[in-house]
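Repro:
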Amino acid sequence: MGMADGAITELLLADTKLAVTGVDNEPKMIERARGRLAAELASGRLKIVLVTHCTSSPTNDIIASGYVLHNLTADYRAGLYNEIWRALAPSGLFVNADKYAQTGEAHREALRWQLNRFFDVLAHRQRYDLLREWVLHYVEDEAANRVMPEADAITRLNDVGFADVRITYRRLMDAVLIAYKS
């Protein structure tokens, strides 16, 4: 998993001071991203790499991820946090915009709100095929080995060695977490 079709990468490249290396392990997604971001590739501000595992040296100032990590099992995510730490330069920044589960009623309310949006939009358009896929995706995201609790993520990142790990933005399930390599 990685940059997928390049939607998040496109947002990052809105900052004209950034040069970005996008990675993915799916050739089809890389092709979609290449099409979407052709101008950025041509300008040299973007490099896209097919990877099967992380092998970069600790030279990345920022590693940013958007809506990828919640799709991974907790064990795989834990190993990936170690790789992110390793790949960051000293004082580097990790930013992840994703679905972070809160606890108790706050989490149930966020999940209820999100599922209701899917029903409101997709059932109204009679897109029951997409409604089914999104509901099943959210059910899978709630599995014990897959759900990404905010508190667990912060603890794991601190255990790896990150400092100042915190949520800087939250709207229901959607949150932005930042962590600095100390």
